[in-house]
Design brief:
The chain is of the alpha+beta class. The chain is built from seven helices and ten strands. The strands form two sheets. It has a five-stranded mixed sheet. Strands 7-6-8-9-10 form a five-stranded mixed sheet. The two termini are 27 Å apart. The relative contact order is 0.16.
Length: 293
């Protein structure tokens, strides 16, 4: 553990997860960002656009909607051959739906409305050629998964995703600990015969397609409890004993994670499907309800 980091060990961790019912993670391929991610690319980014649309005066505003948005070091996969395309689209992971969205166009009202949870299925069938923001429903529908497939955006995520706050420009504690924890996770996973991609966008062999992925993310709240780690375990994910993990379909938040904890997190949570109580901040079920011990 690096010296000199001001980590809060006095306040209980349990119950410190911000309220949310969808976590959208944008694949930027970068490991740090501007202190406010809305300022990335001089403000030309999807986070800023969505926050404005979902704000109190925005056309997608819904007081019952809690959308958490973060940037990540996850790459977009194969590069586009169209430079213009890169300026207005991004790949994203979406939890607890456990979907990967390809080429989300933030000039597209339909794509933005889907991410915000504002479009039911009928807007992709009956009104596919119209502007969905002209008749935006107040609710956000019951068929979000079907909506994404209807416009060709969705790919199910079948592997655990381990996310570590590494937002160094925002807070040095996460900036120092985040990269260290990422390295330790990769080493621990390899010791347990998981395959960790050695280059951005690398494809794993078929038998390793469900191996965990590790990435850095931007601010999620709670720098004083660094290191902060979120682990999303996909539905039907099996443990090494070929049983479905007790944590399948859930997101688990840990705080005050140190390098010495990583081996235990991999064995207990990723492989064993068990929550480590001393590190547990909270979490989310696939039905969007808060996860409690």
């Amino acid at each position: 553990m690096p010296d000199g980091l001001d980590i809060d060990h006095s306040q209980p961790l349990l119950g410190t997860v911000p309220s949310y019912d969808r976590h959208v993670i944008f694949c930027t391929g970068k490991e740090d960002w501007t202190p406010r991610v809305e300022d990335e690319n001089k403000g030309a980014n999807i986070t800023k656009i969505l926050k404005e649309l979902m704000g109190p005066k925005g056309r997608l505003h819904n007081p019952n909607r809690n959308l958490l948005m973060t940037n990540s070091s996850i790459t977009t996969g194969l590069p586009s051959t169209n430079p213009e395309h890169l300026t207005h689209s991004v790949d994203a992971y979406m939890f607890p739906e456990f979907n990967r969205l390809k080429n989300v166009d933030y000039n597209s009202n339909i794509h933005l409305a889907y991410l915000a949870g504002a479009l039911p299925l009928r807007y992709f069938t009956d009104n596919a050629s119209s502007n969905p923001l002209e008749k935006m429903p107040k609710g956000y529908g019951k068929n979000r998964y079907e909506c994404s497939r209807a416009i060709g955006l969705d790919t199910p995520i079948k592997h655990p995703v381990i996310l570590i706050c590494g937002h160094g420009s925002r807070d040095k504690r996460c900036g120092i600990l985040g990269p260290l924890l990422k390295i330790e996770f990769e080493r621990a996973l390899q010791r347990h015969d998981f395959r960790v991609p050695q280059s951005p966008g690398a494809q794993l062999p078929a038998k390793h397609q469900t191996d965990p992925e590790v990435a850095l993310i931007s601010h999620i709240g709670g720098h004083k409890w660094a290191g902060n780690v979120i682990i999303y375990i996909p539905p039907s994910y099996e443990t090494l004993e070929w049983h479905v993990s007790p944590l399948a379909g859930k997101g688990i938040w840990y705080g005050r994670v140190e390098p010495r904890h990583i081996e235990g997190i991999v064995k207990e949570t990723v492989i064993g499907g068990r929550i480590i109580k001393d590190l547990f901040r909270g979490g989310i079920h696939q039905n969007r309800k808060p996860l409690h011990l």
